[in-house]
Specification:
two-stranded antiparallel sheet, single chain, alpha+beta, 771 residues, globular, 38 helices
Length: 771
């Protein structure tokens, strides 16, 4: 559901003008001064002077992002029709100006509910229903607002089968469909969530429904007062009291390079204000506070998602709903100074011009619209710039959204990496990726590889292959890579358990981008204590909140006598973020984990129980609660907690795994082995479960079965370090020196500095020496 700041000017200069190509002269953006103290006054006050902008805004989807349900705002037909979905018959009808439906409620029984608000406009409109506790919930059936000719004017289910039932977090009454957390901040203005962890109720408030003027321009009372003051008047109002001046495009022109047709900005972009204002909602991110206003640094109010597996393909193409910002940060357009409003009219949010005209405002049409460039005849779908450079993916069943990474199509990567490509994803769906790759190669044998050059390295890392480490370090250290790519490389290094190299990690901790600094700290969180204490404390007072809190997490397990007041301040900031999101099970579980790391076991157990109260099937909290009880000396309570959870969720492999460990600790080996075996069977994608089960088999006198299981696991997960090390060790114990040596070589190839791997290698070398 990034940005850049200056941390070290000398470093930025040494790295070569941020991360842009060598002919780009844009300096790192300058931090903005603190917002003036102003109050929200509503969009109506702005219209007194800005009628033209007000009229354009009224026609936008921003203005219609949320509204009271009235005959004017409701687009769906509540005409007593019945829609059957997953065996549930929902009836939509009206009583006077009330819009009603009969459907399954929180208890699974049919009940009648009133629609209170509309949500969105095109290509679909959702509807919000009030439930007890101040909750607004988004109905699982939405109205397709497209014309009949495009398949619209119908009710349709938001989720594919199986249809969620009452009690499921994704059911329309569940917390995953809760407007207060999931939607409010981006569909209304100046939202205060107002959740009480004590009462489990919301008192959510906002200045106005919809995305109003102040959502982007900041609170306007000072500006309105200045404009109304006789001493200033309308002629000078723009400079007085305005919280956020979105003027980065003022007096800017784009001209064509005569030789290449490539556009050049007349003046480098020197701030991120406009892009970060848009990114508050057009980014995949988590919200940390509702005190961050437009104009504040993005990373002080939100944690931006990186190019992570499950969210993006390894080449950076959109996969899950990532909206726009993370894609745009990868692009050459962003690197060259393009902002959102270069293409989108800011008040209507519509594209400024249709089809290729929007692109040829900056890219010379003679060069880029010619068939020699597009490889398609003029007037065909393939001749449109967006067809190749901004392919779409459909979300919410019918909402096709453009990828904003502006990439060159690479069907060859579809062949080698399995990522999508613009050619066969839409226009040539009946053709193979190999055909598209061969066709493109024959038409453009010297075509470049594109701006995003990290795909192969990220794909290797996402397989868990430690051979990716040199490439990832190269991306992290390369100033020509985008900040989000460098941060995503650091994130993958942390996932691979890379032993931090101070020569590589030191500069990354001083990188101008908070994304890079934040992700690099994740690597250090796994480093030895001395290296952490050497490098991390300076980041505890970083100017950006997400960096400070990540630094605190990197030190969270250290004793008080080794930590400073700066740690305590940053750690409290982190706890405040989690308490702000106390309505979410994942936030409560993270709160418990953080408190447990500080030795506050009773408080941690309370947080884990709160997570389970919100979602009784939330496995991480259940497992962590059991472990906290074990650490508190109550093994019996830990086992009971796990058994009760398994009764509700018998196919949760992690619960069986944790129970197996608990039983083994209670010297109930046979029962423990049965649970460990169940975990391995239920989730064959988790090598950790198989590895632990194999160790338990070996330790209970069944070494042959252990080695068979480890061999099978290694075939499926050839880079799993623990499986490799343990199988090699068992082979050595069994006198299978050649087999053990082969496995040890594989292990060292990806873990050269691993002390256990080195010790095993020395043991094997010694066994081969003549006596």
């Amino acid at each position: 559901m990034g940005g850049v700041t200056v941390l070290a000017v000398l470093l930025a200069a040494a790295l070569g003008r941020r991360w842009m190509s060598s002919d780009d002269t844009r300096p790192p953006p300058v931090p903005q001064p603190a917002s003036v103290q102003a109050a929200f006054v509503g969009s109506g006050a702005c219209a007194e002077c800005h009628r033209e902008q007000r009229d354009r805004w009224r026609e936008s989807q921003h203005a219609a992002a949320m509204a009271l349900a009235t005959p004017k705002t409701v687009l769906a037909r509540f005409d007593d029709r019945v829609v059957t979905n997953g065996g549930i018959k929902s009836r939509f009808f009206r009583q006077s100006d009330k819009f009603l439906l009969q459907t399954d409620g929180p208890d699974g029984r049919l009940a009648t509910f009133e629609v209170g608000h509309t949500f969105g406009l095109s290509p679909l409109q959702q509807y919000l229903i009030a439930l007890p506790g101040g909750r607004l919930q988004a109905l699982g059936l939405a109205w397709d607002t497209r014309p009949v000719s495009l398949g619209g004017q119908r009710w349709f289910p938001m989720y594919p089968p199986p249809v969620p039932k009452a009690g499921d977090p994704v059911h329309w009454t569940g917390f995953q469909q809760n407007w207060n957390f999931m939607c409010a901040d981006c569909h209304s203005t100046n939202v205060r969530k107002g959740y009480s962890a004590a009462t489990h109720q919301f008192q959510t408030q906002s200045t106005e429904m919809g995305v109003g003027c102040e959502a982007c321009h900041g609170p306007g009372s000072a500006h309105v007062a200045a404009a109304r003051a006789p001493s200033t008047g309308p002629s000078t109002q723009a400079a007085n009291g305005l919280t956020v001046r979105l003027n980065e495009r003022s007096d800017i022109t784009w001209t064509f390079d005569g030789a290449t047709g490539v556009p050049v900005r007349s003046r480098p972009l020197t701030s991120e204000r406009e892009i970060e204002v848009c990114a508050r909602c057009h980014a995949r991110r988590s919200q940390l506070t509702d005190n961050a206003k437009a104009g504040d640094r993005l990373d002080d109010g939100f944690r931006i998602s990186l190019l992570e597996p499950g969210l993006y393909h390894p080449d950076g193409q959109q996969f899950d709903e990532v909206y726009t910002y993370g894609s745009f940060l990868q692009s050459k357009m962003y690197a060259k100074g393009v902002t959102c409003s270069d293409c989108h009219e800011p008040h209507t949010a519509a594209i400024r011009m249709k089809d290729n005209a929007i692109c040829t405002r900056c890219h010379a049409g003679a060069a880029f619209e010619a068939p020699v460039h597009s490889r398609h005849a003029a007037g065909t779908p393939g001749s449109l710039c967006v067809s190749c450079h901004m392919p779409t993916k459909v979300y919410m069943q019918i909402d096709a959204r453009h990828d904003h990474s502006f990439r060159i199509p690479r069907p060859d990567r579809s062949v080698t990496l399995g990522v999508p490509n613009a050619c066969t994803a839409a226009c040539h769906a009946n053709k193979t990726a190999a055909w598209a790759a061969a066709s493109l190669a024959s038409r453009a044998p010297r075509a470049g590889g594109g701006f995003q050059s990290f795909a192969e390295t990220f794909a290797t890392a996402d397989r868990g292959d430690p051979a990716a480490v040199p490439g990832l370090v190269g991306v992290l250290r390369d100033p020509m890579q985008s900040a989000i790519a460098r941060a995503s490389a650091a994130d993958r290094l942390a996932r691979l358990g890379w032993a931090a190299d101070p020569s590589s990690i030191g500069p990354a901790l001083r990188d101008p981008s908070p994304l890079v600094r934040r992700a690099t700290l994740q690597i250090l969180a796994q480093a030895d204590v001395s290296l952490r204490l050497e490098l991390v404390p300076a980041l505890l007072t970083d100017p950006i909140r997400t960096v400070r809190t990540e630094a605190a997490l990197a030190l969270v397990d250290l004793p008080d006598d080794r930590l400073s007041g700066s740690f305590r301040a940053a750690f409290e900031e982190y706890l405040a973020e989690l308490r702000f999101n106390a309505d979410r099970p994942e936030a409560q579980s993270s709160l418990g984990t953080a408190l447990a790391a500080r030795g506050r076991l009773a408080d941690a157990a309370t947080a884990f129980r709160e997570a389970i109260a919100i979602d009784r099937t939330f496995v991480p909290a259940i497992v962590n609660l059991a472990d906290t009880l074990r650490r508190s000396g109550d093994d019996q309570a830990a086992a009971t907690t796990l058994r009760e959870a398994i009764a509700l969720n018998p196919r949760a492999a992690a619960l069986h795994h944790a129970l197996g460990l608990a039983l083994v600790r209670q010297n109930r080996g046979d029962d423990g082995l049965a649970e460990l075996a169940a975990a391995t069977r239920l989730d064959p994608r988790a090598p950790r479960f198989a590895y632990v089960y194999a160790v338990a088999l070996h330790d209970t006198g069944r070494p042959a079965e252990a080695m068979t299981l480890l061999t099978k696991t290694l075939a499926a997960f050839p880079y799993d370090r623990d499986t490799l090390l343990t199988l090699a060790t068992y082979a050595a114990d069994a006198g299978q020196i050649d087999e053990a040596t082969t496995l040890a070589k594989r292990l060292l190839a990806g873990n050269a500095s691993d002390p256990e791997a080195q010790a095993l290698w020395e043991r094997l070398r010694s066994s081969r020496r003549p006596s």
